[in-house]
Amino acid sequence: MPDTIDTLAQLEALYGAPNDASTVKEVPRITAEYRALIEASPFAALATAGPEGLDCSPRGDRPGELVRVADERTLLMPDRRGNNRVDSLRNILRDPRVGLMFLIPGHGNALRVNGRAHLSLAPDLLESFAVEGKRPRSVIVVAVETVYFQCARAVLRARLWEAEAQVRPGSLPTPGRILAALSAGSVGGEPYDSNWAARAKETMW
């Protein structure tokens, strides 16, 4: 057997064919069951691609408002406050293909959605996503192409929702420490970390 896989034939010979449960779960629309999972999720990873490369952006919001189901083939995601890099949005403008992976705390299965997106500035739509009087600057509109759930093995292996597996506070480098190390101390440091809670509260939405 070769040390690397170079062809689809080699890959398929090694892994075999998927079973019925792996294929029947993929559909081109949001079913009632899949809608329930989307509306329960407060977190998703948004994957995009562009000329500069790939991007995978974490997205978090209140369940039901992280992504709103407009109809069985359309999702609406408000672009909340962030770091203004707009890597995902820049990519969408040049390559509309997107992938979403939803996680639900305490639930083992993930939900995956693939589709094509565009950015909306429709005033009524922006206003419908306002929180504490603050509207998102844009809304990502996703035309759904495929939807399917991912089985719980990865979450179980990671022990993602087990309290005993949580990392101890203070055991990892802080954002301020990372920034200071990367900027020779010109950005970040202890003041960045100590001011984070107040800064986040003011800029959450």
From TrEMBL:
Residues 30-151 form the Pyridoxamine 5'-phosphate oxidase N-terminal domain. It holds the Pfam family PNPOx_N. PANTHER family: FAD-BINDING, PUTATIVE (AFU_ORTHOLOGUE AFUA_6G07600)-RELATED. This is Pyridoxamine 5'-phosphate oxidase family protein. It comes from Muricoccus vinaceus. The lineage of its organism: Bacteria, Pseudomonadati, Pseudomonadota, Alphaproteobacteria, Acetobacterales.
